[in-house]
């Protein structure tokens, strides 16, 4: 029976990746993520999701896809046909970002969820810090790099790539009709670009290449893309410029490589980074060294010697933002934004965050780097892989991917079934 591919997320949007590959009576699901919160997200703050109806509410308003046979019946509205059991299914997660794994806690009991050991460690540390998945941890299965596993007639192999979180992976799914390759999220300007290019080598000549395309819809970057060396250099320079005044920080704690480098740079400048309680608990669960929690320092110590500290408040929902008025803001105080919360101007929280900084007289300096492949790198990647069909997802501008010298570009329709050549076909299961 021919293999089919369906795209239940990531179609015309950034995030929400869900690629369902079916052969015979078995299915492989690559990622099971949420949309990145944005202005159109009905569950954005100040809305608080009802945990006991987390999935049912999302299904009701179209904020979760109606993928047959994968959800936990206990989390579904009584009488909903989604509670019916489907074909045997295994899930393979590319990395520990909510837009790739945010729905795996809603999976039907018995569905195995495979991921890199590093990804599983991050997810379990989040749970230990009180920031776990709605529905709880799934049946995690650690999958070693380059170690194929069999699931029904298909074979799945994980390939470590480079992204801004440990364990980031692409996948090769071998079917009787050929290989479907999936990048997950990927970049080529981080500390380990060789990992990303290795995926290109392993995927070369595949039947279908499914690639993230986040950068396709973004403005052209002025000048060279920023690297991790640029980020660390700018952090060190900002600490030197602050000279005795408090420095505030917003960085992404799941980027453990950057966390470790920032702790080291701060120490060299005679400062310690102070984290909010939840982030400190998360980092300690992953054995990150040199972690200091706000409760161990306190406001008085920061007020007494502001130049000794770099402070990252917990502003995930902005409820703690009035506390910023108590901080000792000096003439050289700056808020360094290194891809932390709130994430950026596309978020509903950003405008309010900027209003508070303006009133408090705290300038914002953005020193982060992009976690995804640039448009140029994406086109080079596709050229090197030279697949029969290329499918750009995880982007709001998939039409801007222009393969040359062979590959057919498929702009998929949500939930429609395709063969590995990108031709739409009728589903063979209900």
Topology:
Layout: E1 4-9, E2 18-23, E3 26-30, H1 54-60, E4 89-92, H2 98-101, E5 112-115, H3 117-128, E6 139-142, E7 149-151, E8 154-160, E9 169-175, E10 178-182, H4 193-203, E11 208-212, H5 228-242, E12 247-251, H6 256-268, E13 272-275, H7 277-285, E14 292-293, H8 294-304, E15 309-312, E16 334-338, H9 350-360, E17 364-366, H10 375-385, E18 389-393, E19 408-409, E20 417-418, E21 424-425
Parallel strand pairs: 3-4, 4-5, 5-6, 10-11, 11-18, 12-15, 12-16, 13-14, 13-15, 16-17, 18-19
Antiparallel strand pairs: 1-2, 1-20, 2-3, 7-8, 8-9, 9-10, 20-21
Helix pairs in contact: 3-7, 4-10, 5-6
InterPro entries: Metallo-B-lactamas, RibonucZ/Hydroxyglut_hydro, RNase_J_2
Pfam families: Lactamase_B_2
Keywords: Exonuclease, Hydrolase, Nuclease, RNA-binding
List the keywords:
single chain; alpha/beta; Metallo-beta-lactamase, Chain A; 8-stranded mixed beta sheet; globular
Structure description:
It is a single chain. With 430 residues, the chain is of the alpha/beta class. It folds into two domains: 4-219 and 371-425, Ribonuclease Z/Hydroxyacylglutathione hydrolase-like (Metallo-beta-lactamase, Chain A); 228-366, Metallo-hydrolase/oxidoreductase (Rossmann fold, 3-Layer(aba) Sandwich), CATH 3.40.50. It has ten helices and 21 strands. It has helices at 54-60, 98-101, 117-128, 193-203, 228-242, 256-268, 277-285, 294-304, 350-360, 375-385, and strands at 4-9, 18-23, 26-30, 89-92, 112-115, 139-142, 149-151, 154-160, 169-175, 178-182, 208-212, 247-251, 272-275, 292-293, 309-312, 334-338, 364-366, 389-393, 408-409, 417-418, 424-425. The chain has an eight-stranded mixed sheet. A seven-stranded mixed sheet has the order 7-8-9-10-11-18-19. Strand 4, helix 2 and strand 5 form a beta-alpha-beta unit. Helix 5 (228-242) packs parallel to helix 6 (256-268). The model has no long low-confidence stretch (mean pLDDT 93).
């Amino acid at each position: 029976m021919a293999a089919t591919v369906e795209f239940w997320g990531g179609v015309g949007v950034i995030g929400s990746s869900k690629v369902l590959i079916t052969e015979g009576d078995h299915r492989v699901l690559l990622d099971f993520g949420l949309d990145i919160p944005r202005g159109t997200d009905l569950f954005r703050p100040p809305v608080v999701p009802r945990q006991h109806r987390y999935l049912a509410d999302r299904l009701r308003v179209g904020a979760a896809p109606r993928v047959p046979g994968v959800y936990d019946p206990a989390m579904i509205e009584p009488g909903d046909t989604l509670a019916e059991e489907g074909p045997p299914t295994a899930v393979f997660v590319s990395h520990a970002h909510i837009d790739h794994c945010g729905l795996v806690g809603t999976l039907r009991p018995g569905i195995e969820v495979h991921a890199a050991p590093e990804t599983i460690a991050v997810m379990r540390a989040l749970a230990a810090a009180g920031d776990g998945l709605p529905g709880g941890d799934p049946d995690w299965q650690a999958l070693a790099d380059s170690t194929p596993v069999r699931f029904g007639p298909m074979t799945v192999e994980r390939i470590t790539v480079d992204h801004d979180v440990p364990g980031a992976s692409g996948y090769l799914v071998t079917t009787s009709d050929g290989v479907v390759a999936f990048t997950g999220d990927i970049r080529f300007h981080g500390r380990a670009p060789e990992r990303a290019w290795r995926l290109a080598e392993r995927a070369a000549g595949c039947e279908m290449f499914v690639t993230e395309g986040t950068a396709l819809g973004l403005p052209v970057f002025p000048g060279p893309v920023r690297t991790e060396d640029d980020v660390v250099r700018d952090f060190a320079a900002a600490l030197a410029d602050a000279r005795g005044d408090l420095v505030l920080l917003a960085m992404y704690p799941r980027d453990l490589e950057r966390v470790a480098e920032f702790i080291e740079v701060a120490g060299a400048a005679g400062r310690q980074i102070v984290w909010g309680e939840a982030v400190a608990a998360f980092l300690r669960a992953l054995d990150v060294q040199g972690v200091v929690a706000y409760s161990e320092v306190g406001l008085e110590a920061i007020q007494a010697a502001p130049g000794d500290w770099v402070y990252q408040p917990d502003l995930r929902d902005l409820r703690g933002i009035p506390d910023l008025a108590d901080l000792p803001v000096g003439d050289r105080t700056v808020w360094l934004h290194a891809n932390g919360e709130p994430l950026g101007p596309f978020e509903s929280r950003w405008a309010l965050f900027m209003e508070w900084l303006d009133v408090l007289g705290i300038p914002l300096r953005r020193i982060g780097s992009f976690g995804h492949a640039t448009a140029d790198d994406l086109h080079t990647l596709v050229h090197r892989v030279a697949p029969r069909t290329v499918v750009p997802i995880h982007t709001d501008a998939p039409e801007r991917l222009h393969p040359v010298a062979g590959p057919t570009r498929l702009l998929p329709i949500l939930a429609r079934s395709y063969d590995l050549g990108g031709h739409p076909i009728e589903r063979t299961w209900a």
